[in-house]
From TrEMBL:
GO CC terms, sorted: cytoplasm
SUPFAM superfamilies per UniProt: Tetrahydrobiopterin biosynthesis enzymes-like
Keyword set includes GTP-binding: yes
Pathway field: Cofactor biosynthesis; 7,8-dihydroneopterin triphosphate biosynthesis; 7,8-dihydroneopterin triphosphate from GTP: step 1/1
Family: Belongs to the GTP cyclohydrolase I family.
The EC number(s) this enzyme carries: 3.5.4.16
HAMAP family linked: FolE
Subunit structure: Homopolymer.
Gene3D superfamilies in the record: 1.10.286.10, 3.30.1130.10
Catalytic activity: GTP + H2O = 7,8-dihydroneopterin 3'-triphosphate + formate + H(+)
Protein name listed in UniProt: GTP cyclohydrolase 1
GO BP: any one term: tetrahydrofolate biosynthetic process
Length: 216
């Protein structure tokens, strides 16, 4: 499914009129087309298969390398991402930290940010995004455990409502052996230095149906 840029441009023209602006004035004349191009990037992941980047795996027991099965976690920190909050259509952006305990199959590290990019490029809430990343990795690899920590700033919080400009939201999604509290805490301790030297731990669990965007 591709983004309908012409339709978006037409709707942005109507939006400009609805807020009392003149879409034909020089400063706004190209705005509908610019917004359409931006939305084409923001929502390019709609309809894409996030497991595709993980389709090409490496057998650690049959080569080419490494020639032994890893016993510890593989941790990829500071994966930058940006997405759009589905509640207000405002951006949120930050870092994803991903860890998994390999089984017999491993994947090139460059594949993991691609999974994040595909899932982030659609209307999202941060809690679901982290769960989807964890599910994709867990179902596509024979990983013994998966942990995904997202740390992001939401413009629906920083730019509107209470305008908490310094606030960020941290969410944790865990699968398999890394859902065990002690194992999860060990990985989070490795990830924490990447979070700008801040001290943070797992966030409290939200009630069903409540998401970070609802706070605005």
């Amino acid at each position: 499914m591709s983004v309908d840029r012409e339709r978006i441009a037409a709707l942005v023209t109507e939006l400009l009129k609805a807020i009392g602006e003149d879409p034909d004035r020089p400063g706004l004349k190209q705005t509908p087309h610019r917004v359409a191009e931006a939305y084409g990037e923001f929502f390019a992941g709609v309809g894409q298969d996030p497991s595709e980047p993980l389709a090409h795996t490496i057998s650690v027991s049959h080569g080419p390398a490494p020639d032994t099965i890893p016993s510890g976690a593989v941790v990829l920190r500071d994966v930058r991402f940006r997405s759009v909050c589905e509640h207000h259509l405002l951006p949120f952006a930050g870092h994803a930290h991903i860890a998994y305990l390999p089984g017999e199959q491993v994947v090139g590290l460059g594949a993991l940010p691609k999974v994040v990019d595909i899932l982030a490029a659609r209307p999202q809430v941060q809690e679901r995004l982290g769960e989807q990343i964890a599910d994709t990795i867990a179902s596509s690899l024979d990983a013994r455990g998966v942990l995904v920590v997202l740390d992001a700033q939401h413009q629906c919080v920083t730019m509107r409502g209470s305008r908490q400009s310094d606030s960020s939201t941290v969410t944790v999604a865990a699968r398999g052996e890394l859902a065990e509290p002690a194992a999860r805490a060990e990985i989070i301790a490795l990830i924490a230095p990447a979070a700008g030297a801040r001290t943070w731990s797992e966030p409290p669990r939200l009630e069903p149906g409540v998401t970070a965007g609802d706070a605005g």
